[in-house]
Amino acid sequence: MGGTPPRSPLAPASFPDLPVIGGVEFATIGAGVKYAGRKDVMLARLAPGTAIAGVFTRSATRSAPVLDCQSKIGGDSTGAAAIVVNSGNANAFTGRNGVEATKAVTNAAAKALGIEESRVFTSSTGVIGEPLPHDRITAKLEELAGSLSADGIADAAAAIMTTDTYPKGAAAEVQVDGQTVRIAGIAKGSGMIAPDMATMLVYIFTDAAIDQPVLQDMVSAATDLTFNCITVDSDTSTSDSLICAATGASGIRVTEANTAFIDALRGLMLDLAHQVVRDGEGATKFVEIHVTGAHSDADARTHALSIANSPLVKTAIAGEDPNWGRIVMAIGKSGAAADRDLISIWFGDVLVADKGWRAPSYKEEDGAAHMTGDKIDIRVDLGLGGGTATVWTCDLTHGYISINADYRS
Amino acid sequence: MGGTPPRSPLAPASFPDLPVIGGVEFATIGAGVKYAGRKDVMLARLAPGTAIAGVFTRSATRSAPVLDCQSKIGGDSTGAAAIVVNSGNANAFTGRNGVEATKAVTNAAAKALGIEESRVFTSSTGVIGEPLPHDRITAKLEELAGSLSADGIADAAAAIMTTDTYPKGAAAEVQVDGQTVRIAGIAKGSGMIAPDMATMLVYIFTDAAIDQPVLQDMVSAATDLTFNCITVDSDTSTSDSLICAATGASGIRVTEANTAFIDALRGLMLDLAHQVVRDGEGATKFVEIHVTGAHSDADARTHALSIANSPLVKTAIAGEDPNWGRIVMAIGKSGAAADRDLISIWFGDVLVADKGWRAPSYKEEDGAAHMTGDKIDIRVDLGLGGGTATVWTCDLTHGYISINADYRS
Questions:
Q1: Which range is the signal sequence, renumbered to this chain (chains A, B) (predicted)?
Q2: Are residues B208 and B84 in the same domain?
Q3: Residue ranges making up the domain that contains A379
Q4: Which of A57, A187, B221, B386 has minimal CB crowding within 10 Å?
Q5: CB nearest B340 (choices: A93, A191, A341)
Q6: Given a cut of 50, is residue A146 above it in pLDDT?
């Protein structure tokens, strides 16, 4: 990788001030997995009794750490737990070596923290197909375990970055019976981003006390409306992982009936998902695509993703070109039901196409004006039924090509 | 559109010398549909009795000319026929106006040539969603009809171009009972290219005498192995059309039993399909992806297209980076069956990955050496069964972004 790409023009002004979550401590270190001169491993220690839920990539070639995590989610929650993440190497498609590398890291973390190996969850992100130099990580675990701190979450967000141009964090507070429950989350991801899951790593921590099956249901449902509704380049990674840990340190119990907590968790996840899109490789525009009037929500989603993943739509947006013909094309090719002569399209508030052809009121300069902003809103009504969906993406620019034609060499 | 993009580095040295096909005459003219200073309309007149077969886009938003052609294929073949094609405007998503524009062109062509309107086939290619200025075309039809010539096929190939950087043609000869049957074809297309159908227009002419249903079966079968196996950017147009006309002027009858003719037709179509990929917008590498060992041919095709359409694979190729991890990723996300630990991958003759991880014999410099060529061969064996597929694509470069972020403005 050549020099660091510049910070995305769509980045938030600064990393948010994340609250300390009782029951979680962080440590980070530079282990030289691939990158020199930066921190590339993070350790999180979770208090005994922490419930841990997870959502993972559905890729048929998912990595050894993903398979290891999946086998551990839902196990006994009695003891303390840990999350170990390295950037620079995905430990994916590394065969038996990959399984052994994962085992070496989980074993070393368990020893360093004095916990059960079945409670150690690891993620690896970066290049696929190269053996993970796991000894560089295991050599640092004692030092990491000795430097844990309750306020290290910002450093953790930075340590898990690969081609990200900024660290991603979000927080929420929820009042439960007059007491405050806190949630904080971090994420990484900027390319190889597509649903099921978007290619990324996400770690969310709350001091609420939540039974593991309840937490799993909450996280799975929220993922479908957040991380599974974003796409940068239609490519799905082998390593996508979301882990949510509820430490219970607040002493406040949250159940499946607490809609305020569920909404707050989903809002936090949507915030992180949008931050990933805003860091889409080469992105200069944040794009929301809202489809209504489809036969079903599933059809609406198929159309929305076909638009969001179309290279011709994405390059038109990059060029600030209100080329609504390419949106028609993307609807036509999606495979979901559409009737050409019922389709209407808006750019922002501007009605562009009305029931199958250019709206009489439409002026190209109005569409062009909307495209000059850095938030693009595309709305499509299919005129067929009540199905709706919203997805988010970014434009496709020279920056994407520069980053990805030169990532590994 | 700014200046004309430079001729693709993958273009053939020159336009081939196409034979005159008895029973077909061509004329071209500059009608100013969109482009100034170039020919943008072509007319082909086909002798009475010509059998006409067609394959068209499956887009749900297909254009008025496509729908009109589809309704006419398979009709009575007694009278003379015509093909009228304009570039610059696709007459797609133009509502009632689009139907009227198509009707105006077919009507004017029928009058100018003294033939039935049911024997006039039209195609329009270019911008979607803008009303076709059909009067500019109809105003020229008498002049076109007056300038028909048997050797005008090369001009026709040029007149149908949009973002193409070179005209595309191919020819074949077949011996039938000691006599020669000729086939000549032209095509346009360079972006919005994906299967079902690849986004393009293709016109093929033969002097063989073939019954229409037989010709249709031949063309449909060959399309599945040629134009439906190429992709530039995964985008499918609203206008894709392939029309094949058998004039019978040679007096030589060809039936479904003539495998030499079928092979020659398929070979010619594959040649044209490859020429379209070689003119892929911004392309610098021609890529063949061959998948073996899948559960089924359909699964092999799904994997091959997932690899061919992956922006991360295509940018890696642009960067001459032997990043086989991205191929693993594309297999994993395709949805078709794969077992991570059985996958093998080759770049050219170089075994890169062997049954799930990097081949012990693999040296990065060997993979890198293959990537420096302008023909890239990627072979994947899934180790599951006997399914195979081959697809062709190109790399994704800064050139694609430049062309498509600035096409319409």
A1: none
A2: yes
A3: 286-404
A4: B386
A5: A93
A6: yes
Domain count for chain A: 2
In chain B, residues with a C-beta closer than 8 Å to the C-beta of A321 are 405-409
Kindly state whether residues B128 and B203 are assigned to the same domain: yes
Q: Are residues B290 and B253 in the same domain?
A: no
Co-location of A332 and A351 in the same domain: yes
> Is pLDDT above 70 for B152?
yes
CB contact under 8 A, A324 and B129: yes
The end-to-end CA distance of chain A, in Å, is: 6
Query: Does the distance separating the beta carbons of B94 and A235 come in below 8 Å?
Result: no
> Residue B105 domain-assigned?
yes
Give the closest residue to B271 by CA, choosing from B171, B363, B368: B171
List the single residue in A59, A325, A396 with the smallest CB-CB distance to B92: A325
Q: Per residue in A82-127, pLDDT tens?
A: 999 999 998 888 888 899 999 999 999 999 999 999 999 999 998 8
Q: Both B53 and B194 in a single domain? A: yes
Pick the residue of A99, A197, A312 with the most B CBs within 10 A to test the interface with B by mutation. Answer: A312
Q: What is the mean pLDDT of residues A270-287?
A: 92
Contacts of residue B232, Cβ cutoff 8 Å, sequence gap at least 6: B190, B191, B192, B193, B194, B198, B276, B277, B280, B281, B283, B393, B394
Boundary residue ending a domain (B278, B297, B329): B278
Q: Same domain for A356 and A247?
A: no
**pLDDT (tens digit, 9 = 90+) per residue, A159-180?**
999 888 999 999 999 999 999 9
Query: What band does B193 get if pLDDT is binned at 50, 70 and 90?
Result: low
Q: Where are the alpha helices (DSSP H) in A23-94?
A: 64-72
Q: Say if residue B257 is exposed, middle or buried (CB neighbours under 10 Å; 0-12, 13-18, 19+).
A: exposed
A220-243 pLDDT per residue, tens: 999 988 988 887 665 666 668 899
B42 or A58, higher pLDDT: B42
Q: Is residue A18 part of a domain?
A: no
From A257, A278, A299, the end of a domain falls on A278
Tell me if A162 is assigned to a ligand binding site: yes
| Contact call for residues B281 and B83 (beta carbons, < 8 A) | no
Q: End-to-end CA distance of chain B: give it in Å, rounded.
A: 6
Residue of chain B with shortest Cα separation from A398: B398
Distance of CA B51 to the CA centre of its chain: 21
* Distance set, CA A261 to CA A181, A182, A183, A246, A250 (Å): 9, 10, 9, 12, 14
Q: Which residues of A touch B194 (CB under 8 A)?
A: 333
What is the per-residue pLDDT across B44-65, written as a single tens digit (0 to 9) for each? 999 999 999 999 987 878 889 9
Residue A199, marked binder: yes
Beta-carbon separation of B333 and A59 below 8 A = yes
Mean pLDDT (whole number) for B357-366 = 92
Return the pLDDT at B238.
Answer: 67
Going by the DSSP 8-state scheme, the letter that residue A167 receives in this structure is -
Query: Which tops the pLDDT comparison, B199 or B391?
Result: B391
Please indicate, yes or no, whether residues B248 and B327 belong to a single structural domain of this protein.
no
In 3D space, the residue among B313, B364, B331 whose CA is nearest the CA of residue A233 turns out to be: B313
pLDDT level of residue B406 (50, 70, 90 thresholds): low
Tell me the nearest-neighbour CA distance from A131 into chain B, angstroms. 9
Does one domain contain both A300 and A248?
no
| Chain B residues touching A316 at Cβ < 8 A | 404-405, 407-408
Q: How far apart are CA B386 and CA B380, in angstroms?
A: 13
Instruction: Give the number of A-B residue pairs with CB atoms closer than 8 Å.
Output: 228
- Judge whether A199 counts as a catalytic residue: yes
* B208: CATH: 3.60.70.12
Residue from the list A61, A337, A405 with its beta carbon closest to the beta carbon of B328: A61
**Packing angle between helix A311-318 and helix A297-309, nearest 10 degrees?**
60
Domain assignment present for residue B19? The answer is no
Domain membership of residue A53 (yes or no) is yes
Res. B235: pLDDT tops 80: no
Residue A61's closest chain B neighbor by CA?
A: B332
The stretch B98-125 carries a mean pLDDT of: 97
Q: Specify the CATH number for the domain of residue B352.
A: 3.10.20.340
